[in-house]
Amino acid sequence: MKIYRARHGGFCFGVKRAIKIALEAAKKAEGVYSLGPLIHNRLAVEDLRRRGISPIEKISGIKGNEVVIIRSHGVAPDVLRKLESRNCEIIDATCPRVRRAQRYVQKLINEGYYVVIIGEKDHPEVRGLFGYGANHATIYKDRHKIKKKKLGVVPQTTLNQERFNSAVTDLMSDAMEVKIFNTICRETALRINEATKLAEKADIMIVVGGKNSANTTRLYQICKKLKRSHHIESAGEIKRSWFKGAKSVGITAGASTPKEQVDDVVRKIRKVFPQKKK
Ligand code: SF4
């Protein structure tokens, strides 16, 4: 079985950085919280919990005076204010690229634009960006409901380029003026392009990552359109029957998948199909 492993599968720069920051904080303080799971990967979150980093869903669950990590998605300014009012020590691991998008939202508002954020409305990054909009922003859904003529546009960093292009074209058909900051992160495009290439050449595809990870699910959907594909969280889910008639397998992973989980998948496939000695 020939294995093609994606070079750009697994943790992106922002996630790697957030985990490093969180682990350093956990070494110094006894028990730290992350506001929401640090990554959308169940097994990795369990591992972080063992190392002293507990995810907490809502600020209401924080009594006060705790160490709280802001994950790579960032948060709205009012969330930071609430944490400060509870005397929490805030460790901000917002990805610098997300932080830049937040600054663009602020800048557009200061320049008098009505900001349209393009992305998934319930995604934490989008909720954070929207929070920087301070009542002068909306999340793109229907251009007919946006009555403003001077629009500023900021996409979610993990948005796919086609969706961004079509939303911008739509918005431009009504507005007098549109100022765009393209904050789509290169890491997303790299993963999508590479997964597409692998799915074109391999006989089957395996996408590794959390079922709750939007970017992993998107990679899976892209691969599925091209080849027989499977989305798994761990190597234990692999079935021999998937490989029937296949001579090669492509393996990719979302931006929130630890390298070790992909290593396990490679090892498992090697075990099922040992390489012949030359
Ligand atoms: S995908 Fe890009 S913007 Fe988002 S956390 Fe990763 S590096 Fe940062």
TrEMBL record:
Cofactor(s) demanded: [4Fe-4S] cluster
Residues reported in the UniProt entry to bind dimethylallyl diphosphate: 40, 73, 123, 213, 215, 256
A biological process from GO: terpenoid biosynthetic process
EC number: 1.17.7.4
Pathway of action: Isoprenoid biosynthesis; dimethylallyl diphosphate biosynthesis; dimethylallyl diphosphate from (2E)-4-hydroxy-3-methylbutenyl diphosphate: step 1/1; Isoprenoid biosynthesis; isopentenyl diphosphate biosynthesis via DXP pathway; isopentenyl diphosphate from 1-deoxy-D-xylulose 5-phosphate: step 6/6
CDD domains tied to this protein: lytB_ispH
UniProt keyword annotations, A-Z: 4Fe-4S, Iron, Iron-sulfur, Isoprene biosynthesis, Metal-binding, Oxidoreductase
Binding-site residues, isopentenyl diphosphate: 40, 73, 123, 213, 215, 256
InterPro entries, alphabetized: LytB/IspH
Sections of the chain in a coiled coil: none
Gene3D superfamilies: 3.40.50.11270, 4-hydroxy-3-methylbut-2-enyl diphosphate reductase, catalytic domain (3.40.1010.20)
Main EC class the enzyme belongs to: oxidoreductase
Catalytic activity: dimethylallyl diphosphate + 2 oxidized [2Fe-2S]-[ferredoxin] + H2O = (2E)-4-hydroxy-3-methylbut-2-enyl diphosphate + 2 reduced [2Fe-2S]-[ferredoxin] + 2 H(+); isopentenyl diphosphate + 2 oxidized [2Fe-2S]-[ferredoxin] + H2O = (2E)-4-hydroxy-3-methylbut-2-enyl diphosphate + 2 reduced [2Fe-2S]-[ferredoxin] + 2 H(+)
Cofactor binding note: Binds 1 [4Fe-4S] cluster per subunit.
Active site: 125 (proton donor)
PANTHER family reported in the protein's UniProt record: 4-HYDROXY-3-METHYLBUT-2-ENYL DIPHOSPHATE REDUCTASE (PTHR30426:SF0)
Family classification: Belongs to the IspH family.
Designated name of the protein: 4-hydroxy-3-methylbut-2-enyl diphosphate reductase
Species for this entry: candidate division WOR_3 bacterium SM23_42
